[in-house]
From TrEMBL:
Its EC number is 5.4.99.4. The keyword NAD does not apply. This is 2-methyleneglutarate mutase. PROSITE patterns: B12_BINDING (PS51332). It comes from Natranaerobius thermophilus (strain ATCC BAA-1301 / DSM 18059 / JW/NM-WN-LF). Gene3D superfamilies: Cobalamin-binding domain (3.40.50.280), Methylmalonyl-CoA mutase (3.20.20.240). Keywords: Cobalamin, Cobalt, Isomerase. InterPro entries: Cbl-dep_enz_cat (IPR016176), Cobalamin-bd (IPR006158), Cobalamin-bd_sf (IPR036724). One of its GO terms (molecular function) is metal ion binding. The lineage of its organism: Bacteria, Bacillati, Bacillota, Clostridia, Natranaerobiales.
Length: 616
């Protein structure tokens, strides 16, 4: 690492407008360019003492290595509230539990959702969505000063969906002493709200900052590709491409982890995917995260039973880090619920004997994942032959120029080589369709494999599944669907869209992160008869009424039906109260005609639409 940090300084110069906008929007000090043209206010690189503790990304390296040696994954729980005080209060409960269990953790602090928005171009959204989803940038610094991250190194969860934020968050981590910078989801899966080239370029810049400042990096994530219904092999290929960028950025592999998802459905498949990643990736560590429990009963014991299955996979697959989950189906967890989750996971780790499972299925499945990844990678990198996993070394990546690598990734993403069914970027084509077989493995539906990748290497569904039929518009009424506020959760609204299209409606789909007024205006422009809005961050209470209000101002409220869905409360403890209120007095206080919360069926939703639009 050069103490001169030329890349960091160059990037600050290139992105100074955004850095200034961030400073203003969130009221935190950031670097600036002095009158003499020099970069000022840039904290020293790690290792550096912050609040009495020497912070460095290498604190995570030590924990990850300890897990490897003891075959005991290190807990990586998520807990963050809006203010430093609240976060400290809830975290303290969790820290006490960890200390009682004698474990050191790697704490993952939820960050405010607005930190995913570009403060220069999206300031309106930032201002309207403050205070939801986790800690504020200011709160983050206060939290460190209060003792956050002292015993248990921490990271602020600010995913790089929005790549400007990746850069800013790497800088923030350097300021705050959080040891780990942003989660650099280079997200070749295409989710996110920025154009693809900006996304990849800025993710690269963020990794460069981390590399020069010894900040730990969570590179691209298998988990996120899994969320958008991608296959394991595709996820591996995308993670490898991010690693290519990390090598070019000069990151130490000891400061790098890949986040993995396990499903707990098929233990052998879970071990196989972990093995495929461990053997093929360059990063030294893996962070294993359980797959989401979509429709759990409102009983945390049920959740823990579900998550225990994944803890077993993480233990047997020898994960370095494991994310215990609590209140996944409700809102942001409490210290109490997270403590229970930590206890449960630690109990699985300590009580389970570390057996060596040598079922031939594991090796076979591992090779299947690697083969798919190599076929995707070969196509993305425009190789005229099939690459092999052993070839993907540091030297391999060094043969590319960084600009060339970025261009190859962007071209592959845009042309459908790197593809997943629910990729969210608007500048992408989507061709692939996947199906999860009974054995818990997601494979392609015949004829729906990634574009430009040799089909013979792609895993094809073993069950008899037909590609979904093209939908036909049979009704005159148009529907506008969008998420409102700083909300990037698009899976639910995507599914509602698919259900509406299957029912014969034309949908104007605005995806994630919209101003409420803009959604109403699009309805006016397109003469839609129904508007559906979503928010999972607990912003519905303030944002849904604004869609209603704008429709009224436009004189349209009598002709346009307004439905909403998602989560109205942010926190676990508030969620129930809202549900009870809707039950008692209806959704009128939200300004909408109907509300569909988590677990609602699409049939029920379409039924309501058909009734309202007279298509029954
Ligand atoms: C997947 C996921 C993500 C993915 C999103 C991927 C994507 N492209 O959508 C990623 C990893 C990116 C993510 C990021 C974050 N997430 Co998140 N995420 C989830 C998770 C695990 C699942 C959500 C999901 O897709 N569910 C499946 C769909 C089908 O369900 P659904 O959206 O509820 O939709 C149903 C109904 O609500 C309804 N519906 C929803 N919308 C609409 C709209 C209409 C019109 C209608 C009719 C119906 C309808 O229909 C569906 C059918 O049942 C949830 C936990 C959970 N179990 O919900 C957390 C969760 C929502 N996330 C959470 C948080 C805090 C975040 C972050 C802020 C974390 C951070 N600090 O960085 C960021 C948000 C960034 C941002 N700016 O938005 C919290 C939110 C807590 C809160 N209420 O504030 C949750 C609850 C997790 C938790 N307990 O901490 N997340």
């Amino acid at each position: 690492m050069s103490s001169e940090r030329p890349n960091t300084k160059r990037i600050i110069r290139e992105d100074i407008d955004r850095i200034r906008a961030y400073e203003k929007a969130f009221d935190v000090d950031m670097p600036y360019i002095g009158e003499d043209g020099e970069i000022k206010n840039l904290p020293d690189p790690f290792p550096r003492e912050v609040n009495g503790v020497v912070r460095s990304g290498y604190r995570l390296t030590e924990l990850g290595r300890q897990a490897e040696k003891e075959k005991m994954p290190v807990m990586n729980p998520i807990l963050g509230r809006n203010t430093a005080e609240e976060t400290f209060k809830e975290s303290k409960i969790m820290y006490d539990k960890a200390e009682e269990l004698g474990v050191q953790m790697f704490h993952f602090v939820h960050s405010e959702a607005t930190r995913h928005i570009d403060p220069l171009d999206g300031i309106e959204l930032v201002e309207q969505s403050r205070g939801k989803g986790g800690i504020t940038p200011k709160g983050e610094r206060e939290y460190v000063q209060m003792g956050g991250g002292s015993v248990h190194p921490m990271r602020i969860n600010a995913t790089g969906d929005t790549p400007h934020i990746s850069i800013l968050n790497s800088l923030m981590a350097g300021f705050d002493g959080t040891d780990i910078g942003p989660v650099i989801h280079v997200h070749f899966g295409g989710r996110g709200i920025h154009d693809y080239k900006t996304k990849v370029t800025n993710s690269y810049k963020a990794i460069q900052i981390c590399a020069e400042n010894n900040i730990f990096v969570q590179l691209d994530s298998h988990k996120h590709v899994n969320n958008i219904l991608g296959t394991d092999g595709m996820a591996l290929a995308m993670c490898l491409l991010s690693e290519g960028l990390a090598v070019k950025a000069g990151l130490d592999r000891a400061l790098s982890a890949i986040q993995m998802n396990v499903g707990g459905i098929n233990l052998l498949a879970d071990i196989a995917v972990m093995k495929a990643f461990k053997e093929t990736t360059w990063s030294e560590f893996i962070i294993v995260v359980p797959e989401t429990f979509q429709d759990p009963p409102a009983d945390f014991r049920a959740e823990q039973a579900h998550f225990a299955r994944m803890a077993v996979s993480a233990k047997l697959g020898e994960a370095n880090f494991y994310r215990p989950k609590a209140a996944e189906s409700v809102g942001i967890p409490t210290g109490e619920s997270m403590s229970k989750a930590i206890w449960a996971s630690q109990n699985v780790f300590e009580s389970m004997y570390q057996t060596e499972i040598n079922d031939p299925f594991i090796e076979k499945r591992k090779e299947e994942i690697q083969t798919e990844a190599m076929a995707v990678l070969s196509a993305a990198l425009k190789m005229d032959r099939m690459l092999s996993p052993e070839e993907i070394t540091e030297e391999f990546w060094q043969q590319f120029d960084s600009e060339e690598l970025i261009d190859l990734i962007v071209t592959a993403g845009k042309s459908g080589v790197l593809d997943t069914p629910r990729a969210g970027g608007w500048d992408l084509q989507r061709y692939v369709k996947t199906h999860r077989d009974q054995d818990g493995i997601r494979r392609y539906i015949p004829g729906c494999t990634p574009q430009g990748v040799d089909e013979q290497y792609m895993p094809i569904a073993k069950e008899d599944v037909e590609p979904p039929k093209e939908t036909e518009v049979i009704h005159d009424e148009k529907i506008v669907l969008a998420t409102v506020g700083a909300d990037a959760h698009v899976i639910g609204i995507n599914k509602v869209k698919e259900a509406c299209e299957e029912a014969g409606y034309e949908v104007i789909f605005l995806r994630g992160m919209n101003l409420p007024e803009a959604v109403a205006e699009v309805a006016a422009e397109t003469q839609a008869k129904l508007v559906g809005v979503s928010n999972l961050l607990g912003l519905g209470g303030s944002l849904y009424p604004r869609v209603d209000q704008r429709l009224r101002e436009l004189g349209l409220r009598d002709e346009v039906h307004l439905m909403a869905g998602g989560r109205i409360a942010e926190k676990e403890e508030e969620h129930k109260e809202y549900e009870e209120r809707i039950e008692k007095e209806g959704p009128g206080f939200l300004g909408v005609d109907v509300f569909f919360g988590p677990g609602s069926s699409y049939e029920e939703i379409v039924d309501w639409i058909n009734t309202k639009l007279g298509n029954k």
